[in-house]
Amino acid sequence: MSQLGLFGTVLVLAVTAAATSACGERPATDAAAPAGAVVAEPAAGTLAPAADAETVVVTAVTGGDTFRAGERRFRVIGIDSCAGATPGGRDATAAARRLLSGATVTLTREPGVDRDHYGNEVRYVETAAGDVGRLMVPAAHTGVHRGSSTASAAYLADLALLDSTGRNCGDAPAPVAQAPATREPVTPRTAAPEQGVTQSAPQTEAPRPAPRPAPRPAPAPAPAPAPRPAPAPAPAPEAAPAPSAGGATYYKNCTAVRAAGAAPLYRGQPGYAAKLDRDGDGVACE
């Protein structure tokens, strides 16, 4: 080959390489995954990370679906655990404490949902073991929450598939015990007596007399009434004044006249005085 032909070949190769670089081919690392390769996805029972997620440390568990992180109060979205006073409520609280006590959890907010009517912040709750709602709802102490301030329809449908038993708090009334059936007494059959043999009547035990009740103790005698105090003696009647030396009778007042048995006094009688006859009709101490 001549030098001119060799130079032309080199020139063509250089132009081809420049054109290929200008087209911007993708590097080999950006190629499609080979057939049969497994694409990594979020683990089952976990929530995909959200932009508004936050991490807190649980300081107290107050119920099957409620807990505290410092001064903040939270409720697990989408589930409804039994109240703490019921047997199911005690089981739910114990299960939540095993999952959450002292744990670091990731909280995610449902769009448009912030707090319930008790003031609790309503959140999806993720632990190292998985989503708390999905872990709690299969047990009988927790069911799917259908009220307001709840999760998305897709999440609730997922919980409903896990909630096969429904919520049972154990506070249903106990079944009424039925009285045992009574059996009728069986009368024993007696063999027919042989001919010529006199069969005596069966002896029956005489009924035992009923025990007599114990005599009641005699009532205690009533206490004697206290003696009444003797009435005070009536005041002695005022003695009639002694007649004066001149023989005239004098009464101080009508009380003295009555005490002497001389009332009434008429004008002209001994002891009559005008001061004792108030109306002046001639009769004193009427």
Backbone CA Rg: 60 Å
Count of helical stretches: 5
Order of helices and strands: HEEEEEHEEEHEHHEE
Count of extended strands: 11
Oligomerization = single chain
SSE-based structural type: alpha+beta
Assign the CATH topology of the domain at 54-162. Answer: OB fold (Dihydrolipoamide Acetyltransferase, E2P)
Shape: elongated
CATH class of the domain at 54-162: Mainly Beta
State which percent range the strand residues make up. 5-15%
**The CATH architecture of the domain at 54-162:** Beta Barrel
Helix content: 10-25%
Describe the secondary-structure layout:
Elements lengths: L2 H20 L31 E4 L2 E2 L4 E4 L2 E5 L2 E3 L5 H14 L3 E5 L12 E7 L2 E2 H5 L5 E3 L8 H10 L91 H6 L5 E2 L16 E2 L2
Parallel strand pairs: 4-7
Antiparallel strand pairs: 1-6, 2-3, 3-4, 5-9, 6-7, 7-8, 10-11
What does this structure look like?
It is elongated and about 190 Å long. Among the domains are: 54-162, OB fold (Dihydrolipoamide Acetyltransferase, E2P) (Beta Barrel); 254-284, no CATH class. The model is unreliable at 19-46 (pLDDT under 50). Helices cover 19% and strands 14% of the residues. The longest helix is centred in the N-terminal third of the chain and has 20 residues, at 3-22. It contains five helices and eleven strands.
